[in-house]
Amino acid sequence: MGKVKAWIMDMEEDAVDMSVEEWCAKHGESLIEVYHEARRKFGDLPRHGSPEDRGSADYYYGRPMNPHYMERQADGNYIRIEREDMTDEQVQDYLRAYENEDDRKDWGGPELEAHDEECE
Question: pTM for the whole thing?
Answer without folding.
Answer: 0.59
